[in-house]
Structures are given as structure tokens and as C-alpha cells.
User: What shape does this take?
Amino acid sequence: MTASLPASVADTLSLLAKGQYVADTPLATALHLALQLKRPLFLEGEAGVGKTEIAKVLSETLGRKLIRLQCYEGLDVSSAVYEWNYSRQMLEIRMAEAEGGTDRKALAADLFSDEFLIKRPILQALEKTEGGAPILLIDELDRTDEPFEAFLLEVLSDYQVTIPEIGAFTAEEPPIVIITSNRTREIHDALKRRCFYYWVDYPNAERELEILRKKAPGAPEALSAQVVAFVQELRKMDLFKQPGVAETIDWTHALVQLDYLALDPAAIDNTLGVLLKYQDDIQKIQGSEANRILTQVRSELAMAG
Assistant: This one.
């Protein structure tokens, strides 16, 4: 069932909370404005901080179809927007030749009709959808090449795609567009100007603990508090890749699965591969450094308690 768009920032916060997403007011404000003013929302930040999850939560809570375009190097129009079904077109030509007496102009018009058009995510998002405009998630745009960025300018400016054989394909109702980037390279200003921008940062300890309560409700409170405090300390260190919120959640689930009620040196050393994804980082933390951080975490939590 389709829900109406949130009427205020407070309603946006409530909508995200309904989808188990713990957001702060600045993020809810950016999202609310993007929804109400029908502008794409460009979310930038480190991997694993919850950018993609926002589109999924919107799809769930608003009851809208989620159309995801996962970006990669070499992504082109045929994979992202549309292509013609050449095998079916060739079959149609051969059948027409076998029957004989075919009008070439009529055949050409028939071959380049909707029947032979394969619609990829962007074109699908511009179609009229039952239940309201869909959510178009353009995920990890920084992985694509600059020519594809240039193509997106038409899509994001006018919500239309020009197909040479047919003409302009324009959305009756603009889709809700969420674009994410891990900032492995800079996105061109021309594209950013067409969007509202928000940097999704790592959460503070209080918010990350609230996220764990929602995403790992079976974890003991003491364990969750230690996990969050430990991860927060890791993010202050010079690591090749700091753990994101996704890794915090995964680590907590792993510790619960192994029946740990609290962190100890063995638990940390045995499960660091869930939290950290590079061997150099694991070697840097494992052993004495992990024990030092754990001692500090225990002391700070004891003082706070």
C-alpha cells in the first residue's frame, strides 16, 4: 500500500524510524526537501555508513517500487537505460522476407517499437508505475566513467531519455532519485548541482548504539555498548579502511552467534576478520593493541556507568 510523502522533517524522521533507520535531523531535513521539491538526493560518504539503506527504507515505508542501478566501470547506456532486442528484430526481418511483399517503411517502424525495446533501470524508472513514482537508486556512481555522468545530466534535469529511433521518453511523474558515492573519485559539479547533497558520516556512539538496538536486538546491552565503544576507538586510528556501521552490525551478530556476553581478548582476535577487511589492519590491531583498546573501553564504560 502506497503511503503519502512526509509533510515535515519530523514526519521524515518518523518514516525512517518506521523502517528501522536511525537518522539525525540534518539527514532527515535533506531527504524531506528532496522528496517535497522533487530533486535527486546525492548521498556521499564512506562505504558501510547506510547510504544505500535509505533508498531501501523509502521503498519499504512508502510502498514504492525500488529500481536499483548498480554502477561499475564501463557502464553504458545499453546496460543502464535501454537497448534493442536485436535477435528478435532479426527474426522479424527473416519472417517478413519469407512472407514476401513487405513494406520496408512499415517494417522499420515495427522493428523500432516498444515491443522490441528492452528497458533497463533508468528507463523503467521513467515509466508510469501503479502506486506512485518508483525509487531509483543509482548506487556507487563514483565507480562509473565521466561519459556516463554526462548522460545522466539529461535524466536528472528533465527526467527524460532521448531514444533516437523513437524520440524523447519523459516521465509523467518524476521518480524519487537517490544517488550514492563512496568518493573514490570526485563527481562533476554539473551533476551535483542538479541534486541536493548530504555527507553521510559515521554516527556518534549514542546513535550507533541505538542502531545496534534496532538491527541486533538479541545482543546483550553490555556487549553492544562495548562493541560500539571499541569501534569508535578504531575509527580514531590510522587504518587502511575504518569499519562502517554495517561492519559493527555484522560483528555484533557474529559475537552473539558465538555466545559471547561481553568482549574479551580472545573474542576480538578470533573475529576481527568480520570487523576489518584488510590484513594489514587486522595485524595492526590484533593482540596487544586490541587488549589496550579493550582495557580503555572497559574503564570508560565503568566510569560512565
Q: What stands out?
A: The radius of gyration is 24 Å. Residues 69 and 138 are 5 Å apart (CA to CA).
